[in-house]
From TrEMBL:
<keyword id="KW-0378">Hydrolase</keyword>
<feature type="domain" description="GP-PDE">
    <location>
        <begin position="13"/>
        <end position="261"/>
    </location>
</feature>
<dbReference type="GO" id="GO:0008889">
    <property type="term" value="F:glycerophosphodiester phosphodiesterase activity"/>
</dbReference>
<protein>
    <submittedName>
        <fullName>Glycerophosphoryl diester phosphodiesterase</fullName>
        <ecNumber>3.1.4.46</ecNumber>
    </submittedName>
</protein>
Amino acid sequence: VAAPLTANNNDAPILVGHRGAGGVAPENTLAAFKAGSQSGADFVELDVQLSSDGVPFIFHDETPARTTNVEEVFPGRTNDPITSFTWKELRQLDAGSYFSANYAGEKIPHFDEVIDVVTGNTGVFIEIKSPAKSPGVEKVVADALANDAKWSKLERAGKIEVLGFDVASNKKFAALAPEVPLQQLTGSVPGEAVLADYATYADSFGTSYRGLDAAGAARVKNAGLGLGVYTVNSAAAVDASLALGAERITGDFPQQMKRHIAGQ
Ligand code: G3P
Ligand code: CA
């Protein structure tokens, strides 16, 4: 079991910038991770997948359609799996223009690039996204955290949590890196027996705040799991999440969450 995570201010909830700070900059780009880190989020969250030639990159969706200019660069491949692209191909895509012309030219980042833009006390929530499409991604992440100097420094500082929806993938990761905090995600809170299974390998549980109620929050706590919620994008949702005892709050506007919690 990993040591519990803490916010930079010990008594406060852990504030996490979703996809960096996907509400203020193009999601999962270095611009978003910089914005999330500079806003004082305790962590920035990213989604990691593997290219067809095995390179870990940061991207949420299963295809490039929504957030890149793929149709211009690779006509006809708009709805292809993002993991069917080589790393060299992925780097040719513009992942910023979909958000605003001000971000034209933002690239899909390599997994390691995020470390160079998170500053101060900001840590990283690493979501292993769609792992069935990225065979071996658990080992790539575990190896980076264990062997890469920059990643392992963050990990030793208590500034890393790994998360994912896929139970088999999470169990694989837990076996490879039992010392790394691990969060099991599901869209709603399951029953006691399933939560008890989660507690055998995970430290915390994360779900949509929309599906969370007092009974669900109590089941999570009774299973001995920490509680996280996503994607919290309003003051009312922050308040509701805190009232239910969530100590990890993930949202697209981390600066606004931080100000709200500070009463500003
Ligand atoms: O923090 C968990 C959250 O990121 C899960 O949802 O779809 O944004 O990856 P999604
Ligand atoms: Ca995610």
